[in-house]
């Protein structure tokens, strides 16, 4: 690695290679969840430097993770200790706007907001717009095919891109920087890199398509009584507005009541007794006529009984106030990363399912929640608390005694009780190998108590152990028969930290990835929904039926998992667990 880094320094210069505290002082996720663990961060300044660096890494078999603005919410920029980061933060060249062809050529490290400012300065518009516009970069927007607020009018990032320059893993430069919209000359190479998230190469430059800057904007919030009218209203408005419809955001009644509250914070634009609400926006090129057309379209919707109430913003300030009334208290905006938290809010039961180990993530979550929802109190639930919800009352003292945390703090509870997940996965693997893998439902829910189901581990297991040289990991993939590789890793002192769990009941199958150390689902796949239909089946009713059937299957799967967890805990909290664990490890050590 030292030789590789020395060669890279010769390409990009010593100031462009960060190591040690310069690396760990940075985060590689949003919200920040601890320092970056990569061995080094490389910061090239040009496509040529990116190419030369990747050539060296490719020859050395060195893993590389690309960093842009670090605003992604799915952990795609996370780097392991044996990887290096290639950051595009120094690649920020933004060429002058071509006002004739309505294009702009930029480096991949240019923030989205700078593109907006350059376009508006030339009387044009770059329509891609995200909440993270000040931090996210064009390269990241392309790599993820970002959508944004104006998809209904202008489309995804794919629709805003005319050409790209990218570097493949072996350092080959692919240049397709065409600035022509009507281009049918051979393969459209840019399409390969849009949405590829760095798997095919690193985008280094791009030609972006600009649009005319709208001269008018009309905004309204409307109320609709039934779900089946929403689609008709969208189609009618899209047609009546002649292609100027730029936003159409739908809210259910309980969501609208949640964000508007009693109206003391942002006002209450419409009454809270309607079934659905739509935030509607139209942008065009003729101020007065666009306003008349917008109002006429809403009037026609009233006459057609598609909508029952509406409020129209009469000025730019009112348009902003209207958006604030709808979005100001919005959970998805004030807490911009539910995926990184694994947070799901059931607004009917007022339960938020949340899991995270990083102190920063938890602190940010709690802080933003308090700011957004004054008067509401968070009661955090950790894995030990989850265990307490599924076991019998008689086992509660044993669970209390098994709790290794001396504090009520959630993070300490999680960190001190990682045994809960690792022991569960160890037990489940033993059961998979040596038992029928058949269990009985013992938790309340949709499935009848006493019904049988099957649960077993298969496909992928991650084992790890800490040593002086760092964390050593072993990943075992593919269908498992005798778990020979897993047993070898266990004999070497490693523990199961992550595994794929299957649960089956009759013809239905659930598949989930369980992270044992934090007792958290990295994925949860329920059975596919199949509905019988005929020529007279109503499409709207069909969509509703599919939605509720999916919810039913998810709830059923969680009931099966809780039953499996409770079965394990009944053994784990028994006085004979030490002997049982020894029997499990002895059995796993045998060939």
For this entry, give a set of tags.
4-stranded mixed beta sheet; Uridine Diphospho-n-acetylenolpyruvylglucosamine Reductase, domain 2; Alpha-Beta Plaits; about 20% strand; 5 domains; about 600 residues; alpha+beta; 21 helices; 22 strands; Uridine Diphospho-n-acetylenolpyruvylglucosamine Reductase, domain 3
Brief overview:
The protein contains 21 helices and 22 strands. It is α+β, with helices and mostly antiparallel strands and 591 residues long.
List the helices and strands and how they pair.
Layout: H1 2-12, E1 17-18, H2 21-24, E2 40-42, H3 47-60, E3 64-67, E4 84-87, E5 103-107, H4 112-121, E6 124-125, H5 138-144, H6 151-154, E7 161-167, E8 173-176, H7 190-193, E9 202-209, E10 211-212, E11 216-224, H8 228-240, E12 245-252, H9 253-260, E13 276-284, H10 287-303, E14 309-312, H11 316-327, H12 331-334, H13 338-341, E15 344-346, E16 351-353, H14 359-372, H15 383-390, H16 396-402, H17 410-416, H18 419-434, E17 438-440, E18 452-467, E19 470-477, H19 484-491, E20 495-505, E21 508-515, E22 520-525, H20 539-572, H21 577-589
Parallel strand pairs: 2-4, 3-4
Antiparallel strand pairs: 1-2, 5-9, 6-10, 7-8, 7-9, 11-13, 11-14, 12-13, 15-16, 17-18, 18-19, 18-20, 20-21, 21-22
Helix pairs in contact: 1-3, 8-10, 18-20
Describe what this molecule looks like in 3D.
There is one protein chain. By secondary structure, the chain is α+β, with helices and mostly antiparallel strands. The protein folds into five domains: 2-87, Uridine Diphospho-n-acetylenolpyruvylglucosamine Reductase, domain 2 (2-Layer Sandwich); 103-212, Uridine Diphospho-n-acetylenolpyruvylglucosamine Reductase, domain 3; 216-329, Alpha-Beta Plaits (2-Layer Sandwich), CATH 3.30.70; 332-372, no CATH class; 419-589, no CATH class. The protein has 21 helices and 22 strands. The strands form six sheets. Strands 17, 18, 19, 20, 21 and 22 form a six-stranded antiparallel beta sheet that branches. Strands 1-2-4-3 form a four-stranded mixed beta sheet. The chain has a four-stranded antiparallel beta sheet with strand order 5-9-7-8. Strand 20 (495-505) and strand 21 (508-515) form a beta hairpin. Helix 18 packs across helix 20 (539-572). The longest helix has 34 residues, at 539-572. It is globular and about 80 Å long. It starts with a helix and ends with a helix. Residues 327-344 and 354-358 have low confidence and may be disordered.
């Amino acid at each position: 690695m030292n030789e590789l880094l020395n060669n890279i320094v010769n390409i990009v210069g010593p100031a462009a290679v960060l190591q040690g505290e310069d690396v760990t002082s940075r985060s590689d996720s949003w919200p920040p969840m601890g320092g970056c663990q990569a061995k080094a961060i490389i910061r090239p300044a040009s496509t040529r430097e990116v190419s030369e660096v990747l050539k060296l890494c490719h020859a050395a078999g060195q893993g590389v993770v690309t960093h842009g603005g670090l605003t992604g919410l799915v952990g795609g920029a996370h780097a392991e200790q044996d990887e290096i980061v290639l950051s595009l933060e120094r690649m920020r060249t933004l060429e002058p706007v071509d006002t004739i062809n309505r294009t702009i050529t930029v480096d991949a490290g240019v923030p989205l907001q700078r593109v907006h400012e350059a376009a508006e300065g030339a009387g044009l518009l770059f329509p891609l717009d995200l909440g993270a516009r000040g931090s996210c970069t064009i390269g990241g927007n392309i790599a993820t095919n970002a959508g944004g607020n104006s998809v209904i009018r202008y489309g995804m990032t794919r629709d805003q891109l005319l050409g790209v320059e990218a570097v493949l893993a072996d350092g080959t430069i692919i240049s397709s920087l065409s600035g022509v919209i009507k281009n049918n000359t051979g393969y459209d190479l840019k399409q390969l890199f849009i949405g590829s998230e760095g798997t095919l190469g690193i985008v280094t430059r791009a030609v972006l398509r600009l649009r005319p800057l709208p001269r008018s904007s009309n905004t309204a919030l409307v109320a609709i009584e039934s779900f089946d009218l929403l689609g008709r209203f969208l189609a009618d408005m899209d047609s009546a507005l002649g292609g100027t419809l730029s936003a159409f955001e739908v809210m259910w009644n309980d969501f609208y009541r949640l964000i508007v509250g009693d109206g003391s914070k942002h006002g209450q634009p419409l009454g809270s007794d309607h079934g659905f609400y739509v935030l509607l926006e139209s942008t065009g090129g003729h101020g007065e006529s666009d306003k008349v057309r917008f109002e006429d379209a809403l009037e026609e919707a009233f006459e057609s009984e598609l909508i029952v109430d509406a409020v129209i913003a009469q000025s730019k300030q009112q348009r902003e106030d209207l958006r604030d009334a709808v979005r100001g208290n919005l959970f998805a905006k004030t807490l911009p990363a539910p995926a990184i938290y694994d947070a799901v809010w059931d607004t009917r039961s007022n339960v938020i399912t949340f899991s995270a180990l990083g102190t920063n993530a938890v602190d940010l979550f709690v802080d933003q929640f308090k700011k957004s929802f004054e008067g509401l109190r968070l009661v955090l639930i950790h894995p030990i608390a989850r265990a307490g919800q599924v076991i019998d009352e008689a086992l509660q003292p044993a669970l209390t005694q098994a709790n290794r945390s001396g504090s009520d703090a959630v993070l300490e509870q999680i960190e001190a009780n990682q045994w809960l997940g690792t022991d569960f996965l160890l037990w489940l693997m033993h059961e998979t190998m040596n038992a029928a893998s058949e269990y009985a439902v013992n938790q309340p829910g949709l499935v009848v108590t006493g019904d049988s189901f099957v649960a077993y581990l298969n496909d992928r297991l991650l084992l790890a152990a800490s040593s002086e040289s760092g964390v050593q990991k072993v990943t075992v993939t593919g269908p498992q028969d005798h778990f020979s590789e897993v047993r070898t890793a266990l004999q070497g002192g490693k523990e199961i930290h992550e595994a794929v769990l299957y649960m089956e009941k009759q013809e239905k199958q659930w598949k989930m990835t369980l992270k044992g150390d934090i007792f958290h689902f990295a994925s949860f796949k329920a059975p596919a929904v199949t509905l019988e239909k005929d020529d007279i089946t109503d499409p709207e009713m069909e969509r509703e039926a599919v939605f509720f059937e999916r919810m039913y299957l998810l709830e059923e799967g969680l009931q099966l998992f809780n039953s499996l967890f409770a079965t394990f805990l009944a053994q784990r909290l028994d006085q004979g667990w030490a002997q049982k664990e020894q029997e499990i490890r002895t059995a796993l050590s045998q060939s």
